[in-house]
Known about the structure:
Helices cover about 60% and strands about 0% of the residues.
Amino acid sequence: MCKGLASLPNSFLERAKELKAMLGSILQNSTLNLSWFKIGKNKATLEECLTWKESFEKLLSSKYGLCAFTAFLVSEFSEENILFYFACEDYRRTKSATKLPAKAQTIYDEFIGSDAPREINIDHETRDITRANMLVPSLSCFDSAQHKIYMLMAKDCYPRFLRSPTYRDLLCQAKPGTKAARQPGQQKKV
């Protein structure tokens, strides 16, 4: 389990497990590996946790960073943002043009439609553009909405995550990296 998740109430962990199950196909088909519910020895190092402060991209590119950020979003009841973002990433990797309409409709119904169970917070204009793009789904039909959600996470959720007790606890619990860097020319101790 990711460091810091243990400090979250069980209800948050249960919701996170439900999210993982719901996104199973996306996670299986993507290069993203969220093995964050397994207890293991591999944890984020202090150095890795500190790199997450450098940029939102570095946070998302780290499996432990993504784990912690997703847990944070679950705790704030705003996990639809990260779910939509990665659903769009998965959609963009669709190789078969015949699958695009069905996949696009699933994403639209889940996140954008007015009665969507996980409706994302986008402006009316972006919603209208996306609705129009649905008439002839292409790999870029969600680009505008995905960009809005990415910016929302980068400008709002990410800074709050960095100030959160979740992140502070991760920093406190993280251990320095175990791979000590050797000086050039220095012999390995036997």
